[in-house]
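Issue: ligand-bound run for phosphoenolpyruvate - logging full I/O for the record.

Environment: standard queue, default settings, no custom constraints.

Inputs:
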Amino acid sequence: MVAKRSCIIIGNWKMHKTIEEAEAFVNGLLTSYSPSDHKKIGLAVPYTAIYPLRQLVSSSSILSIGAQNMNDASEGAFTGEIAGTMLKEAGAEFVILGHSERRRLYAEDNACINKKMKRAIETGLRPILCVGETEEELASRQTEKVIELQLREGLKDLNAIDLRDLVIAYEPVWAIGTGNPASPAVAQATHQFCRRIIANLLSLEFAEQTVIQYGGSINAANAQILLAQSDIDGLLIGGASLSLATFLHIINQHYAKLSPEE
Ligand code: PEP
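Outputs:
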């Protein structure tokens, strides 16, 4: 029997929160949230907050701290960039790669993201690979083509062992920060499609184990219905993860009803 997939809920803070604000948030989270096990909650924070937050959560196994980007080189003359080893040393456990803001604002293409994937894996950082179509691509019915290419090229030359910790985040670009999430049915169908492509690229068994998060305009009112879809294994939450009350509401609503091993 295939083991049940984990559910992983991650907040992506983007360029928000000073160290002081980040520590206040995490102190509040640790006080108000105490499930019996698991590291199924993560925060992708600004680089400056990684080390101090890891100090705060070091005795807790409930919260992972990660980064939102990294360079594909191991070191070098790349002013303003950061290496995976530096993130790892600071305490990052995962890194978001290929977020649509990186693709759109910093011209990151699939080949660039693939290099970052390889470096993240070599460094021991869990990669969260974001995929998703733009509004124009949706309108011209290109969703499947775009996502297939993002997965095929983003995961190029990586095998099932390299990718054992892989998380995919399906984030339709038209849903990010717009207040207009994908409907549960559309999200579920696209997640199923992603799983099919992963099965083609790796294996059916691998695809069945792969965690696929949904991201795009999640809030306290829509999180549960999205998580109730059989192929949605977690959330990548932008704006709604900045408020401790809202983030707590979403994770409590979900995890409170699960048994410890789920
Ligand atoms: C994101 O940017 O990853 C995201 C999902 O943002 P939001 O939740 O604000 O739409």
